[in-house]
Amino acid sequence: MNILGIGGLLSDAAAVLIQNGQVTAAIEESKLTRRSQSGRLPDAAIASCLKLGGITADDVDYVALARPLPTGAVIPLALQSFGNSRIVTVDHHAAHAASAYLASPFAEATVITLDCEGDLRCGGKWHGTGNHLTLDEEILYPDSIGQLYGRVTQLLGFTARADEHRLQWLSATGEPRWLEIFEDITGGHSFDRTYFDFGRQGNGGFSSKFFDRLGILTASELTESDRANLAASIQRALENYVMRLATGAKNICLAGGVAWNALLISALEHSGRYEGVFAQPAAGNAGTALGAALQVWHESAGGAARVQDGAYCLGPQFSAQEIKQVFENCKLRLHLLPTVPETLSNAVRLLKANQIVAWMQGRMEFGPRALGNRSILASPHDPYSAENLNAFIKHRESSRKFAASVPAELAERYFEAGPNARHLATVSRVKEPYQEQFRGAILANDLIRVHTVSRDDNPLYWQLLHAFGEATGLPVLYNTSFNLFGEPLVCTPRDAVRSFYSSGIDAMIAGNFLLEK
Length: 517
Known about the structure:
This protein is of the alpha/beta class. It has helices at 29-33, 43-53, 75-78, 92-101, 145-155, 164-171, 179-186, 208-214, 224-245, 262-269, 287-299, 320-329, 340-352, 385-394, 411-414, 459-472, 493-501, and strands at 2-7, 14-19, 22-28, 62-66, 86-90, 108-118, 121-129, 132-140, 251-255, 276-279, 335-336, 357-360, 374-378, 403-407, 415-416, 428-430, 447-448, 450-453, 477-481, 507-510, 513-516.
């Protein structure tokens, strides 16, 4: 049984292939084409999924299409190459819900989906039992907590629907001084719209009533401390809003763009209200391709077995010959590392020398986070790693910290990390003896982004962490995504070469080839 999932057509289009209950491939179109293409089918992602699955369009039994669709789209014509397939459409938020619950380890859960807007809805609450989801509550636009978060993002000078993560990390440095304002906006049956001026383009579209309660006239009057406190206020309001919504079961699953908020996931994990919390790693619109395919597997194709979430490294990979050909065509001087021990020993040598190393191995990750296959790595022993990674490679503000990757079985020695650290979907705390060691990666209040790596999920990266630990006494590496600022993760060897030579990265190990500047 072959099911092709397609989602995110209005933004962040992606394709997913499920074969006999196993996710064979999952890829965002932008990672392949290196550009945003809204309103179109992800042709490159579809072709890559079919190639990875070893099938053609004629072999696809179901096409699961997550709505909303581009205006005027004619589904049969747009997918005419899949003439033998049954096409099933899935509602946008239903696809989000399926991506969270049907990929979770839970047999029963409350499922929350929250985003800015999709199908005139901005969220929903579902009850999952077995392999079935029942809608309990719809949240209709414009009562959107995601949009409200985006309004504050814009108010503080960032870009809404793009920079919410920057607001999130800023919030960790502030105090929720203005929480009451946001509680007044969100606490009723519907949002209090008197705080918004829908004709206002700047300052987040907030009304004079909002600024009166802040005690200012415009955002330009906010100090840096005020900015952090305002960010902390909307962050706390978001956490409170979700906890009011997330009742009814001992487990909770989340998807939609709001579920990318790692501080929210951490707050839920530490609330004491839930036995289990699962945040879909590909929580945004690309994840609806996965959710649509999962729903069709259970509802239409009659699949009984749950699909495991896995390591989410489900994109293309490249052979040694393919990597070598690209490097030689670029006239690069490369070094062959013919064995795994040589690959690991050279990576450790570079990292011990405080070199920043691009690490491109195996299959590309699905979702926005680097999980050890398309990563930039640095040593936590280097006192300048924070400055080098943020200022000279990622070109971003110092409040945006990188993650600490650690073998899963050793994580509790250094960190208080929850299960969602497996996919970098939460934040953790540094244990007291190691707080100075990891000072460069700490957000605030000893919070740190932790990525727990198991041997089953990523055996080569797991071996690298252990090899680095054997050489230095600390089996932890700083990890950030391998990409240029504003671009998606690198996919191909050519993408990697471009990003490597356009940044301050010192060395790159791609497959079993080493490049050094």
